[in-house]
Amino acid sequence: MKSENILSPSRKIETLVLADIIDIQVIQSLMNDFYKLANMPIGINDFKGNVLVSAGWQDICTKFHRVHPQVSKYCVESDTKLASAATPRELKMYKCKNNMWDIVTPIMSDDQHVGYIFSGQFFFDDEPLDYEFFRSQARKYGFNEVEYMAALNKVPRLSRKTVETGMSFLMAFANTLSQLSYSNFKQAQLLAERNALVNALQESEERFHTMANAIPQLAWISRPDGYICWFNERWYSYTGTTPEQMEGWGWQIVHDPEVLPKVQNSGMLRLLWGRCLIWSSLCAELMEFFARYSRMFCP
User: Fold this and answer.
1) Whole-number Cα distances in Å, 122 to 26, 115, 127, 164, 235
2) Integer Cα distance of 276 and 24 in angstroms
3) For residues 269 and 261, what is the distance between their CA atoms, to the nearest angstrom?
4) N-to-C CA span, the chain
5) Which of 10, 155, 172, 264 has the smallest count of CB within 10 Å of its CB?
């Protein structure tokens, strides 16, 4: 995931673009290796046709076809025609108006089209190359014919078996990207929701502490077993203790040893353990508990 906006719980999957849900640098490195292995040019475009990843693109396209105003329209037209015809888990092959082969398969996120994997700019090794077509094209669009034909001769000539294998890989890779993109989106949404809940809980806890520290009564938070993890400021001022002394079971040291077992076994105390306790004169038994401190703390 590249965009922090995806972490918003309100973000909808249909608003995502491909750059939001893939790591472009990682995919670029992977596609560079794929091109070295298969010699098949490749590109990954978002749904609007923006090229996010490319490897092995040929000079005949990058230095001639895609930089000429008219010829570049043929490139866009070919990409658009291929993209509109492709369906999930399917590959489409098409010979563009510049007389070169292109292949495409879509990238999905849930049921949403977010981009396409393209391969192309190659010829099959068993098909004759129409040199006259490319010479006439060079003359028609004002390309330097010598340089244009030299670029043409560098275009990969691939066997049908190589293309078939490469197409199978590209389709599997597109399916993997589709699945990962949706899974990553849902994971990011769950993480964002969890973070929002944690932040809300922290804010609520801070508000509670502020309120509990402002009251004149003693208040604390304990576990169900009686382990106390928080006291309000009134507790420390009343007992003269520190947080380090009181943590956990330290609260027992400030009470009369004779009264402590009675209170520990009190049904009232067992009922109230595990909650925030704010005391008043309503509970005589527990007020006796707090009234009988050892002389160390209440001389």
Assistant:
1) 25, 22, 11, 13, 80
2) 50
3) 11
4) 63
5) 10
What is the token pair recorded at 167?
């197409």
DSSP annotation string for the chain: ---GGGG-TT--GGG--HHHHS-HHHHHHHHHHHHHHH---EEEEETT--EEEEES--HIIIIIITTSHHHHHHHHHHHHHHHHH--TT--EEEE-TTS-EEEEEEEEETTEEEEEEEEEEEEETTS---HHHHHHHHHHHT--HHHHHHHHHTS-EE-HHHHHHHHHHHHHHHHHHHHHHHHHHHHHHHHHHHHHHHHHHHHHHHHHHHHHHHSSS-EEEE-TTS-EEEE-HHHHHHHT--HHHHTBTGGGGGB-TTTHHHHHT-HHHHHHTTSEEE--TT-HHHHHHHH-B-TTT--
Global pTM value: 0.55
Give dist(CA 70, CA 75) in Å, integer: 9
> Hey, where are the domains in the chain?
4-186, 215-291
Instruction: Dig out the tokens for 169 from the structure.
Output: 């890989």
Architecture, CATH, for domain 4-186? 2-Layer Sandwich (3.30)
CA distances from 208 to 43, 144, 146, 275 (A): 55, 77, 80, 13
Query: Which position has the token pair 């490749």?
Result: 42
87: left (phi over 0), alpha (psi -120 to 50) or beta: beta
Read off the pLDDT of residues 138-182 as tens digits, 9 standing for 90 and up: 999 999 999 999 999 999 999 999 888 888 888 788 777 766 666
- From 18, 19, 46, 17, select the one nearest 118 (Cα to Cα): 46
